[in-house]
Amino acid sequence: MQFPKLTPLQSRFAASLLASAFLLLLYYTLANPTFAYAADVDSILPSDHNHPIIFDIDDLLTDSIDHEALDDPYEPEFSLFDRSIAGRAAAGVTALANNDAQQMNIEIGDIQYYVFTKEELASNLSAATPGLPSAVERRDEKVELRMDLKKRQSDDDDDDDVTIPGGSRTLYITLNTCLQPSSNSSGFSTIPPQLELYVSNSADLQKPGPDADSSKQTVVNVTGGYALYTLDADDDVYIGLAAPNTTIFSGIWNYQLAGSIDSPFASLDSATNLYFVDSDSQTALLVTNDTTQAEENSTVYQEWMNMTPPFSMFASNQNDSSILGVQNSYCGLKNYAQIFATVGDNVAGEVSMTNRGLGNKPKEQFYIKSLNRSSTYYGFLAMTGNSTASGNGIVGGGGKVWQAMNFTTKEGMLYYLTLAPAPTFQY
Questions:
Q1: Tell me, what's the pLDDT at 419?
Q2: Domain spanning 269-408: CATH 3.40.50.1010
Q3: Taking a C-beta distance cutoff of 8 angstroms, is the pair 208, 90 a contact?
Q4: Please, what is the average pLDDT of the chain?
């Protein structure tokens, strides 16, 4: 198809028309703001109110800090953030929850940090689990006084959210050593050093330890792998756990650290509550103290006699020193004791309830097997958890240990040494 030929006059007119149209289009483009922004938009528009302006919360917090005082802990001075949310805990500090033990390894010379926050202190007390028919434990007097105060206050408080006068709360901090380093020399029986426990309730000392200000922290005595520290607090409580330096031992410590506002997560009783009856060359018979002084026809008496035996027993030959250093720790004895007699396990021993002996009161008996002749043993009464439940989230879930007693096996065999059968009651 051929296009028509234009005369010179027509060609000049067409060119002028196209030029005018282009100029009009250029003018319209420059005059219209929408097209101008579409052509070139700046990445930062502080003066353009047609676009939303977004600020980074980290930038806002950074701008509010005095950069000449960065060595001091940051404390926000505006009411938007509470201290419990911003700037509260130092880096490298692990938060503890109520009745939730942290089980960790720690290397020789290391230190680890924890905090029990004021939110956990102010939380509701945990629900109690079913207990024993009657109390048999004898607590530390100071702990007993605190527990008695909480019980009396709880009787007057419908929601069991108990605090002591002054708005503070009682906190029980417990430490159990589960594993400890071994000697570098064969035959070297020195006991490994104990872990070191430090506690601070000062916001100025969030990492207590061996090199920290002694006036702002408490050094808690750790004995036989166990420690209990009780304090009243209304703010964050900081904990440092240090493993001492040593060159004659190698390996790690393993521990359980717990905080509770209810009662000690793990317990140690200074009484033995375990008595030797008799032995032969391979077995021994031991019993607990009477669990109740109730009369035989009483409900409590019958409940004790018919319940699943609540106690366990650890035993170790005194020639074996591996338990020394963890002898007050339930998890330590569980790892190092040679014998663990508990209900349902008849290999190490047999356990049952009985009323044999003077007064015919309920007690638990242990028939321990696989012993060596003419040998002296340590015997420990113990309780898994609180006797009815154990583990994290349970009040007293870390178990209980009584002080050690001693018993010795005989040279020969006694064929009459057996468990006494438990009587059957009719309800």
A1: 57
A2: no
A3: no
A4: 80
